[in-house]
Amino acid sequence: LKDDDIKAPAPRKNLNLKLLSSYAISGTGNSAEISAYDAQSKRMFVSNSLKSKVHILDFSNPSSIKEISQFGVAPHGGINSVAVYKGIIALAVEDLVKTNDGYVLFIDTAGKLLNKLKVGALPDMICFSPDGSMVLTANEGEPLDDYSVDPEGSVSVISMSTSADKLTQADVNTMRFTAWNGKEASLRAAGIRIFGNNNTTVS
Known about the structure:
- By secondary structure, the chain is mostly beta strands.
- The chain has one helix at 184-189; strands at residues 2-3, 6-7, 35-38, 43-48, 53-58, 66-72, 78-85, 88-94, 101-107, 113-121, 123-128, 134-139, 154-159, 172-176.
- It has one helix and 14 strands, in the order ββββββββββββββα.
- The strands form four sheets. A four-stranded antiparallel beta sheet has the order 3-4-5-6, with no helix packed on it.
- It starts with a strand and ends in a 14-residue tail after the last helix.
């Protein structure tokens, strides 16, 4: 089998998985989308996109997972993703109007808000670089269904040049794809997917 041009590895039968435990968010109309584990505090942070909150779980005993508290994101927008690095939790949050620029929220392991920085429209995936020196978000720029508003996609890089609570907007660099506008035909010929309505640009 192949995924694009990469040959899949040969199957191996020496991996056995056994369910140890699970945790169910109580109540109806909830979700558990993205989870991130902090080894320092032994806490798990789980995004609940349907209720716009993050659940903070005690994961010190994986056989008995318990909820400690919740952090509500609704005043800022909608939670899309969560990432952790050594006690700092970064949240990708779309604006209350999803086509507006979104935010990265930083909280501590107890769920205290440390900072809020603006990034591109509809930040989705968020991650720390392996050394923790940067936070990156993929900003989807999702349009309205009728494309009456179609924000640009982008990637934001936050330099963790100081502690999370002291970061400023100057530490955020949002990179856009406008340099490829007008090159749609050649990019499609190279196999890049570009879709939308007739006015959709690469960016």
